[in-house]
């Protein structure tokens, strides 16, 4: 993802795309940025809180940092469990649906950092259930919500509530 961004902005004197390694945390100057928008999953870093503090220290006073992230990058297996609970013989591939985090989970991830929570917004585009049950009968669609709840419960039991 970094290479295409670097190519796209190669002629811009004010935009630099750089891949950072959270384990090595290359030296970035303190208080250099007014805004940081990071599209990465802090939950896959070995030390997410340390990494967030590192990002924070690069902000100028009054600077704004936005982290666009999901707790688990892909929950396709969970969607498949729900699909199979309703229609065990289905061969339909899992739709590319992201299960959006509850606000409390995202807030929990930030509670040990130095960031001040100004505003948190969760955006959802489309109807996930509708895409995952496309072509199903009304009878099967009525079972979908309970099947998703069951699959999520299994996910929570397997990985813990803060991991889903």
From TrEMBL:
Superkingdom of the organism of origin: Eukaryota
What's the protein here called?
Uncharacterized protein
The organism named in the record is Metarhizium acridum (strain CQMa 102)
């Amino acid at each position: 993802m970094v290479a295409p961004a670097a190519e796209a902005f190669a002629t811009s004197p004010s935009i630099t795309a750089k891949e950072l390694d959270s384990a090595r945390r290359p030296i970035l100057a303190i208080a250099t940025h007014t805004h940081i928008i990071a599209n990465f999953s802090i939950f896959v870093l070995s030390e997410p809180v340390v990494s967030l503090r590192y990002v924070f220290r690069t902000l100028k006073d009054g600077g704004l940092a936005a982290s666009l992230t999901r707790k688990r990058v892909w929950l396709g297996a969970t969607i498949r469990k729900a699909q199979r609970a309703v229609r065990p013989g289905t061969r339909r591939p899992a739709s590319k649906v992201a299960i959006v985090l509850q606000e409390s989970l995202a807030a929990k991830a930030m509670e040990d950092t130095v960031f001040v929570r100004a505003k948190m917004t969760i955006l959802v585009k489309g109807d996930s259930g509708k895409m995952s049950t496309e072509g199903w009968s009304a009878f099967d669609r009525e079972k979908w919500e309970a099947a998703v709840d069951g699959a999520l419960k299994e996910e929570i039991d397997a990985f813990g509530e803060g991991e889903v």
